[in-house]
Amino acid sequence: MKFDNCFTSELYSLADEIKRETFEFDKIKNNPYSFVSPSAYDTAWLAMIEDVDTQKPMFQGCLDWILSNQNVVEGIWGSHGDENGDETLTSTLACVVALRKWKTGSLQVRKGKRYIERSTEMIIGKYINPKKKGYCPRWLVLMFTGLLELAQQLGLQFLFSARVNKMINNLFFQRQEILHREKLMDDRYNQRSLLAYLEVLPSTLYTENQEEIIEKLCDFDGSLFQSPSATAAAFMLSGNTKCLAYLQSLVQRCPHGVPQIYPMSEELIKLSMVNIMDNFGLGEFLSEEIDHFLLHIYKSYKTEDVERMPIFSKVDQLHKASLEFRMLRMNGYNVLPKSFCWFLSDEEIRDHLETNIECLFFVMLSIYRATDLIFPEECELEEAREFSRKLLGKRQFIDEQMVPTSHIKHEISTPWMARLKHLDHRMWIEGKDSNAFSVGKASLIRINSDKLTHLAVRNFELRQAVYRSEMDDLMKWVKKSGLKDIGFGREKTTYCYFAASSSTSLPFKSAANIRKLMAKSGILITVADDFFDEEGSVDELKALTKAVLRWEGEELKDHGKIIFQALDNIVKETAETCLKGHGTDITDHLRNIWNETFESWLREANWSKKGHIPSMEEYLRNGMISIAAHTIALPTSCLMESCFPQHKLKPGNYDTITTLLMTITRLLNDLQSYQKEQEQGKINSVLLHMRNHCGFEIEDSIAHIEKIIDSKRKQFMEHVLMDEFNELPKPCKDIHMSLCKVFEMFFNKKNRYDSDMDMVQDIKKALYDPINIPK
C-alpha cells in the first residue's frame, strides 16, 4: 500500500501546528501554565472576589472566562474527562453562583441551573447503594453543600424533587459528621485537610480559628495549600495582603482560567507534556523538538537539596525527578537512581506517601515506571520498585471515581518489557485520564491535549490501514511460497506480522521492508522448527541441513524443498535490499547465520531421537542459537544501518547485546514450554536444572531460571540504553530491544505463541478495531 499523501500531509501539518504552539519562542519554557487545563471551579471563586473600592469584580478576567467557557448545549462548566459528573456538578454550581453574584450572564445561569436540577439526582444517587453505604466522596459533600448554601443566600432557588431534596438533606448530615469528626487545622501539611476546603465551610469555623489561619497564610506563600479557591475565600474573609499578592500573581500567570493548584512545578508541567507526546506515539513527528528538550533537561540536570524543602515541594521534586530519570535513561543519557531514590531514606516523605496515596497516585506511578529501567547492581531501584508497587497495590484505599486505577492495573499486571509499543500507544490514546498528571482537591489536573489526541488518533488509524495492507501482501507471499499449505505445524502468519508491526519504534515510512522481513523470518522459523521437531524424518532433516550448508536445494523434495526455497527467497530479498540501500553485499553473512541455525535444529533433533542428555552448558550453547532470535535481529539491523559492523555478523563473534538477546529469549521459551517438552521426551534448561539438582522440585528450577533471566535482562537493558557498552548504532539496538519485548510478550506467564486464542484480542486492537476515544 502506498502512503496516502493527503493523509500523511494532514498529519505533518497538524504536527507543525503543535510544534509552533508548544516549542516555538520557547513557549513551553516561558509559560508552561498555558498547557494546563483551567479549573472552572477555582476560576469561579476568584471571579467572586469584590474590589472594595469599586465594588466590582477584582478579577474581571476570571468572570469573563466563565461567561465565555460554558458548554452552551449542555449548560455545564467542567473537565472533559469527568465521566461521573461529580466535578461538572460542583464546577457548574460554582460558576452559576459567581454569575449570580454579579447579576450577569442570565442565559448562562438559566442553562446551568437547568443542568443542576436535571443532573443532581443521577450524580448524587449513584452513591446510594450497599457498596457505597450511602456516602458520597468527602470533597463532593463539602463542595456541593457549601455552594448550595451560598446559592440560596444569593436568592438562587432550585426546583428539586422530593427524592433529590432527601438526598441533599443526607449530604448536609454527612457534612455535619465530617465537621464534627475532623480538625480544621491538620498537624501535617495536607492538601486534603479540612482547611483546604475553607471556601465551602461555615464562616463560623474561620472566625473561631482566625489567628491560626492567618499564621498559616504567612508561613508559606500567602496561599492555603496552593489552592486558588481556598485562598480566594481566605482573602475575602481576612483581606490579608499576602493572600492578595498570591492571587494577583496567579491571575497574571494564568489569565485564561486558573488551575486547581498554584504554583506547580513548571518543570513537571513541561515533562508531563512531553511524556504525553511519547505515550501517544508521536515521537516520529516531534523527535527533533523532544530531543532538544531532553538535552536541555540533561544539561540542567542536578541533584536538589531536598532536606530543607517543605513537604509539598519534596513531593513535586520526587515526581519531577522520577519522570526525568525515566525519560533521560530511555533516551540514552547517563543518569543515576539517586536522583530520585533519595526518598527511600527520608522518613517524612515516605510517611507522607503512605498516608496520602490517593492524592499522590501519579507520583507513585511515576516512581514505579522509572524502575522499569533497572541496570545490574541498582539496589535502590529494586527497593523503590517494591515500595511503589506495594502502595499502588492498595487499590481498596483509593477512590476509583477520582484516581485512574486502570493505569495501575495496566502497569502492574503486564511488565513493561512484555508490552508492545503500538498497543501501549493505543491504551494511552484511549484512556480518558491519559492527559492527567496530578490530583487536585476535586479532580485530576490535566494537560490540554486535544490536538495531541487528534494527531495520535489519525496516526494510529494510518498505521492500522498500512499494517492491514502489508498483512494482505504477506498472506499472498505465504500462500505463494507454499508455507501456508505445507500440511503440518503451526500457522503463525498473523502472529508474526502483529509482533513485527507492533513492537518496533523505527521510522514508520522507512520500516516497511523491515516489518515484512521480520514477519517472513518468524513464519519460516516456526515452520522449519516444527519440521525438525515433529514432521521430518532423520534423513529429511539431514538432507535439508546439508542443502542449507551448501546453499543448494535442487535435490530436495516435498517439505524440505518448500522450506529451502522460502529461505532462499528471504535471504535474496534481504541481501538485495541491503545492497540497493547501503551498497553492501551481506549474502554470505546471512547464509552463515542460517547455516548455524539449521545445524542447531538438527543437533536438537538428534539429541531427542537418541535420548542424549546434554550438559547445561552444551544445551545453552546450542539453544541460544536454535531459538533463532538473532536470525531476525541481525539481518534487520543490516537493513537499518549501513554502518552495522560486518564482523558482528559472524557466528561466534556476535556483539554482547546479541548474545544476551539469544540467551534471554531461549530461557523465556523454556519457562513456558518445559511441560510440553517433558511430555515429548525432550529436554530444556528448566528440566536440566531439576535433573542436575537432586531433591529439587520443578518450582525451584523455575525460580532459578527466572533469576538468570532477571540478571540477563538488566544487563541487556544497560547495553541497549547506554552507548559505552557496544558499537552498535542506536536503530540496531532498538531492533534488539523490540525483538526481546516480542519474546517477553509471547512468553509472559504462559505460552501465548502456541495458543490459538490468547493473542486474538491484541491483534484485533493492533490491526483492525477502530480506536475508541472517550467524549
From TrEMBL:
Keywords: Lyase, Magnesium, Metal-binding. The keyword Metal-binding applies. Its cofactor is Mg(2+). Transmembrane segments: none annotated. The keyword Lyase applies. It comes from the Eukaryota. GO terms for biological process: diterpenoid biosynthetic process. Residues 223-412 form the Terpene synthase N-terminal domain. Residues 480-714 form the Terpene synthase metal-binding domain. GO terms for molecular function: carbon-oxygen lyase activity, acting on phosphates; metal ion binding. This is (E,E)-geranyllinalool synthase. It comes from Cardamine amara subsp. amara.
